[in-house]
Amino acid sequence: MKTDEIREAYLSFFESKGCVRRPSDVLVPREDPTVLFTPAGMNQFKNEFLGVGKLEFTRATTCQKCIRTGDIGNVGITAYHHTFFEMLGNFSFGDYFKKEAIHWAWELLTGKQWFGLDPERLTVTVYLDDDEAFGIWEKEIGLPADRIRRDDEYENFWPAGAPTEGPDGVCGPCSEIYYHPPSGGKEVEIWNLVFTQFNRVGNPPDNLRPLPKKNIDTGMGLERIASVMQGVESNFEIDTLKSLCMAAGDSVGLKYSFDAPHGRPLRRVADHVRAVAMCIHEGVQPGNTKQSYVVRQLLRRAVLEGYLLGKQQPFLHSLVPAVVDVMRTPYPDVAESAESVANVIREEEDHFLGIVERGLSKFDRLVENCRKDGASVIPGEAAFELHTQDGFLVELTETMAARYNLKIDRERFTALMKQHEQLSGRVTADSVMAEGPLDALRKTAGGTEFLGYEATQSSAKVVGIIAEKQLVESLEEVGHADAVGIVLDRTPFYGEAGGQVGDIGSLTAEGVLFEVVDTQRDGELLLHIGHLKQGTLQVGDTVDATVKGGRRAGIRRAHSATHLLHHALRQTLGPNAMQRGSKVEDDVLRFDFAHKGPMTPEEIREVEDEINARIAEGAVVSTALMGIKEAREAGAMALFGEKYPDKVRVVSMGEFSKELCGGTHLSNTGQVGLCRIVSEEPVAKGVRRIVAYTGHRAIESVREAEGLLKELSQVLKTPQPQDLPRRAMQLQDEVKQLRQELAKYTRASVADQAAAFLQEADEIEGVKVVCRRVEGGDRDILREYADQLRSGKQDVCLLLATEVEGKVALIAAVSKDLTKKGVKAGDCVREAAKAVGGGGGGRPDLAEAGGKDPSKIDDALAAASSFYSEKLAAAAQA
């Protein structure tokens, strides 16, 4: 069976057992802050497992897209580790339990019409004390007792070690199924059945309390079961991943073979490019925080593998079509974003390869220092600095060091990285089952009925009050600085979602005023955040909930305009200009979209014209509730990486726009009034951002522009605004002429001062070393000094510094003959820049840098002087 066939067979089998087939959740779960990426199939069923909210079904089956990076070092080395993978799962929420889970697992694995594995090659494990599971395997399935192994809580319990070490909460024993290959190789764990039947409370003994409703959570790696069924020695040899490995080999000019020396790095390239492409497809751009940091590191690791195989040009982007080919059957929308994904990867590759080239000189100095000191180990601090400050990945440092018979201090490097991750917030919570006041409230109150599509005012009942992160029965403290949250049974307030900000307004009753300053959404609950201004508010009270109408109207204008903008962008730039995010406020919108370069002024004008043409058309805006599949078939556009419910709201504007959207909108496009694009700029690799105004704000911006033109006309004594460009050009010509005259006097002054600097300079090995502060200068003056100081016959090394608008400007220069002896201006300016909290670089003979701390200029000059002294002495001895 092919991998796609295995996935479909698994899901069809469990559908036949009454399980509801659910789509894969997104890779980044927006409403679960406890994880960076979705790590398992059970994550999307957090509320069902906790018994929170209404159960729409009690049995489910999925194939979940997952990312785990805990074992990234093993990717490509072992047979089964991946970063991105798919997890097959079947689940029960208080419905079927051990008997059915075990019987169905056996039926699927061994049934001739299903997977058809040889039963003699299967063994299982159960938890040490789980006699029930042991009995089902032995007495009902008929598995001999010598093929059922009992393991302790660290091997066969979820979470591992929970009975003894915790955490408190839902837990249970496991039963794992292993396959023994005909080749006699190592047994392979193919399926884990988790029986969540306990609530752990406190320390042992007797700390496992039976749950009133028992659950089933199983997980089987799709790639792993495919390797078993296809009879190959590694997940990377299955039909889908092997084709990716071969494409990776072609992209770097090598033929892929599992046992070849370059097999491992090509497997890592294949794994990482699949993970990166799927993440970028869902809107996660390479960056420096959270998920974006992981994507950037995976991408750079893949590029690094190619670099070390001799491919020192961008290549990873060329593998996106191969990723699309292997993923399009289960996830057909990956094809729609392929071009924009490839553009993002290409830009990041270019950037990283530039970092590698710049980092090589710093690495060369480390090697040189080790040789001088007779050391065989590069300090962990040096490798850490290269890794975090210069983007020179530690794997590259390690590989390059091996060429010089050097190692790095990995232990120290790892310790520094752990500190760095903690400080930068990349350590995440462990538990996905953490309950809070909102979870407790969901169990009793269910969800909040949203009335805001039809109304901005309604009566409602208070069902929950959250203060100091706790549920309270009443709120009495008027004017308290900390905001509190009020949950109502029904509300006209829109909770922030889909880029639209939350509503503001008031909750009132007789003698009571609660000011709502924000509304947030948590699942089906809407949380009205604000301050009690008057009276006492209690759970059970009836209040009048009133949205601030003028602000809501502005939000509706801006939100409807984002749909018009999306349509206009795709019409002007093509279908690859897909939405990557948005923020909608009162008559202000921000819209992010995929595009590889800046828009031209003509394109921006064309987009703005199209938007306003559709506004003038006054097209009808209509909404319809339909199934997600029906909506997609009808042509409704969705935002990749966004999780949609089974029933979605489709917003249509005339015949030109149809999108999935839960926001509030106008009834016709003419109500937008006017739309003005005020900026277009980059926001991430391959992503642009447009900011636009609508309605009153757009009119105000036009008036402001007209006012500025009048003011400029008066200042420049130009009666007609259309004459302003001509007048500005005249002034530029005058300024240019004045500067030229000033430069004559400046050059004469600089020449005199430079002569004085040379006369006062130290001389080392026949070379004048000038490290001086220049008062009242700028970068142009520093360059003039550098040219003057090097214009004579004597060799010169220099570093000059000046303060410009509260920051530091540095320039380093050396006579060209000295660069051949290893004395380089770029290296000097980098060392000096560290002292003033900055960085920079340039050519070997001339380089510039900047810094943040002018009080440390003397330290920078001293660092440069020391650098030149050391380099000149070394050159003299060579």
From TrEMBL:
Gene3D superfamilies: 2.40.30.130, 3.10.310.40, 3.30.54.20, 6.10.250.550, Bira Bifunctional Protein, Domain 2 (3.30.930.10), Threonyl-trna Synthetase, Chain A, domain 2 (3.30.980.10). GO terms for biological process: alanyl-tRNA aminoacylation. Residues 834-853 are annotated as: Disordered. Keywords: Aminoacyl-tRNA synthetase, ATP-binding, Cytoplasm, Ligase, Metal-binding, Nucleotide-binding, Protein biosynthesis, RNA-binding, tRNA-binding, Zinc. Pfam families: DHHA1, tRNA-synt_2c, tRNA_SAD. Zn(2+) binds at H559, H563, C661, H665. It comes from the Bacteria. Binds 1 zinc ion per subunit. Consists of three domains; the N-terminal catalytic domain, the editing domain and the C-terminal C-Ala domain. The editing domain removes incorrectly charged amino acids, while the C-Ala domain, along with tRNA(Ala), serves as a bridge to cooperatively bring together the editing and aminoacylation centers thus stimulating deacylation of misacylated tRNAs. Catalyzes the attachment of alanine to tRNA(Ala) in a two-step reaction: alanine is first activated by ATP to form Ala-AMP and then transferred to the acceptor end of tRNA(Ala). Also edits incorrectly charged Ser-tRNA(Ala) and Gly-tRNA(Ala) via its editing domain. HAMAP family: Ala_tRNA_synth_B. This is Alanine--tRNA ligase. It comes from Maioricimonas rarisocia.
